[in-house]
Design a protein that fits this description.
Distance between the termini: 17 Å
Strand order of the largest sheet: 1-2-4-3
Structural class: mainly alpha
Number of domains: 1
Number of helices: 9
Shape: elongated
Helix content: 55-70%
Order of helices and strands: HHEHEEEHHHHHH
Length: 295
């Protein structure tokens, strides 16, 4: 798949995912309502409206939610001149409008991009990354993030982050509600109870796996297109080596936003947690470095 096909695919995938999300949530709520002995039709209708608003909201406001979650602060050129200048220069080379530039106060080195399209793009980097990288490495990282913007990865990733989180919340609410429901009222809905329990367990896992599959592919594409932008793959390869060697635990990242970063902030080498290491949001750094150095 070439770059232009990838951009086109990301655009239509976003709309398809939003539509399927509305259908899936409505079906999920219907089954869970039947399992709890509630008015399934009425509640499903409300869920349909809510899911529609959630889809639209994730399209327009996912970037604001991500920035608020990570504690990112917008900066001016005078605050971090080298960082800001690198973004400016690479935007000119890529033919992109200048995104808003943010910094996250966090010693763990990392960076991400967000926004629904290039006109509303955002680039964010942690203070740990800005302190660690030399000029060529910083340009490699920024070029990678600008490639996400140019490829419309940021729209797809932002929408997925919000919708996957909503599925997890919905499943959790069902589990809690079922604990307080009257089991005698639900004997006639035994089949729906079994299906609802299975969906409550499997839905967040399935949604996360879809999210991770999309993310791994877009990371490799951004590595390649970012290197094409700088004409120096070694800059990004060296930056990824430094990220692989760093063991600083993140302060501001979360499982909902981990897939947005250039490197998984919950790498097992950083956080010894069996749950955060269960699914990998990125291709292995060793594989990415090897590909970059073969260019």
């Amino acid at each position: 798949m070439n770059l232009y096909n990838a951009i086109s695919a990301n655009k239509w995938k976003t709309w398809i995912i939003m539509f399927l999300f509305v259908v899936f949530i409505t079906t999920l709520v219907y089954v869970m309502s039947k399992a709890l002995g509630l008015s399934a039709i009425g509640i499903s209708g409300m869920a349909l409206v809510l899911a529609g608003f959630m889809s639209i909201g994730s399209y327009y406001f996912s970037d604001k939610l991500v920035l608020a979650t990570t504690g990112a602060k917008e900066i001016k050129k005078a605050d971090y001149p080298a960082y800001y200048r690198a973004v400016e220069n690479l935007c000119i080379a890529a033919g992109l409008p200048m995104p808003k530039v943010y910094v996250i106060e966090d010693r763990s080195p990392n960076a991400f991009a967000t926004g629904r399209d290039p006109k509303h793009g955002v680039v964010a980097a942690t203070t740990g990354l800005l302190d660690m990288m030399n000029e060529a490495e910083l340009e490699g990282v920024i070029a990678h993030e600008l490639s996400h913007i140019k490829n419309y990865d940021i729209r797809l990733a932002g929408v997925l982050a919000v919708l996957v989180g909503f599925v997890a919340i919905l499943s959790d609410l069902f589990v809690r509600a079922s604990l307080f429901s009257n089991s005698d009222d639900n004997r006639g809905n035994a089949v729906f109870v079994i299906i609802a329990i299975a969906l409550a367990i499997l839905s967040p896992i399935a949604a996360t796996l879809i999210q991770l599959s999309v993310n791994r592919k877009r990371e490799l594409l951004a590595d390649a297109s970012g290197s094409l932008l700088t004409r120096y793959p070694e800059g990004l390869a060296s930056a990824l080596e430094k990220l692989a060697a760093d063991h600083t635990a993140p302060k501001t990242a979360s499982n909902a936003t981990a897939h947005l970063f250039i490197e998984n902030p919950f790498d097992n080498k950083k956080v010894k947690n069996m749950f955060t290491g269960l699914f990998n949001t990125h291709p292995p750094l060793e594989e990415r470095i090897k590909i970059l150095r073969s260019m």
